[in-house]
Amino acid sequence: MAENLKALRRRLRTIRNTKQITRAMEMVSAAKLRRAQNALFAGRPYASKLTDVLARLSASGTVAHPLLAQRELRQRWLVVVTADRGLAGAFNAQIIKQAEQFLRENPENVALVCIGKKGFDYFRTKKWQIAWAVTDLNARISSQRANEIADRLMESFLNEETDEVLLLYNKFISTLVYRPALEPILPLRAITGQETETRSSVREYLLEPSPDAVLQALLPRFVRSKIFIMLAETFTAEHSARMVAMSGATRNCEELTDKLTLRLNKVRQAAITKEIIEIVSGAEALKA
């Protein structure tokens, strides 16, 4: 019985220490979530309006740009965006699952670009080719790093290392909801054409020096903006998922603490009752 009491006290102490850790991680994730949300919500209007302008400029089909070129699909890149750390529920698992499903459906001429350590650590042990990886972002939204990734993707596309680039990432919906999103990024014709179909109202823009020159300057900016918004969506969803996961872990620790405290009290009471019975029985035996 004494051993049981000692084991229960040790387990109770461990759970209380774990609860302090999960609560601290929840508070840190909540603070990072607010900053990531601010960056995401500030960037969305710019990206949306830029997409609108590019869709209308390219609707005529008279503009020629290497980023709009549609080539024969000899090589495709799938950009898989995961977190660098775990403890975020199903955040990484569902992206990896979606990526594996895509690779099974398209087994030939597909290479991976892994952004995030979790995805890279998983796929480097598999049979699929990894073109390159970025594993040092640490869930920090940086326009400089987003531009570096976008420029490398555009350079690879222009050098015909790949003929199509797809983005697979978690899209932030709300604090409790995020969904996997698979979107084309290069060539840009697929994006601008899709956006044109979804716009019902038509506006005419007067542009200087010419629509072609404006479009030539805006297309690289659009790719950089798209990558930045993708990273912002991913990191916001990551902090949200980790905050929710740590909140659930903290609640589980509280429930376990209550159950173990009750169990500890019962065991201690049983031990005391047994000692009292032994004392009383011994006294009665001496009297007899």
What does this structure look like?
This is ATP synthase gamma chain. The protein has a five-stranded mixed beta sheet. It contains six helices and five strands, in the order αβαβαβαββαα. With 288 residues, the protein is of the alpha/beta class. It has two domains: 2-24 and 248-287, Orthogonal Bundle (Helix Hairpins), CATH 1.10.287.80; 26-244, 3-Layer(aba) Sandwich (Pyruvate Kinase, Chain: A, domain 1), CATH 3.40.1380. The chain has helices spanning 2-57, 91-105, 117-123, 143-158, 189-198, 211-287; strands spanning 76-81, 110-115, 130-134, 164-172, 178-186. The longest helix is centred in the C-terminal third of the chain and has 77 residues, at 211-287. It is elongated. Helix 4 (143-158) packs across helix 6 (211-287).
Helical region count?
Answer: 6
Strand portion: 5-15%
Distance between the termini: 30 Å
Q: How would you sum up the major sheet? A: 5 strands, mixed
CATH H-level homologous superfamily name of the largest domain: ATP synthase, F1 complex, gamma subunit
> In what order do the strands lie side by side in the largest sheet?
3-2-1-4-5
Q: What is the CATH architecture term of the largest domain? A: 3-Layer(aba) Sandwich
Rounded Rg: 28 Å
Overall pLDDT, averaged?
87
Order of helices and strands: HEHEHEHEEHH
The gross shape turns out to be elongated
Number of domain units: 2
Query: Which CATH first-tier class of the largest domain would you pick?
Result: Alpha Beta
- CATH topology call of the largest domain: Pyruvate Kinase, Chain: A, domain 1
Which structural class best describes the helix and strand composition?
A: alpha/beta
Helical residue percent? Answer: 55-70%
GO molecular function: ATP binding; proton-transporting ATP synthase activity, rotational mechanism
Subcellular location: Cell membrane; Membrane
Subunit structure: F-type ATPases have 2 components, CF(1) - the catalytic core - and CF(0) - the membrane proton channel. CF(1) has five subunits: alpha(3), beta(3), gamma(1), delta(1), epsilon(1). CF(0) has three main subunits: a, b and c.
Main location: membrane
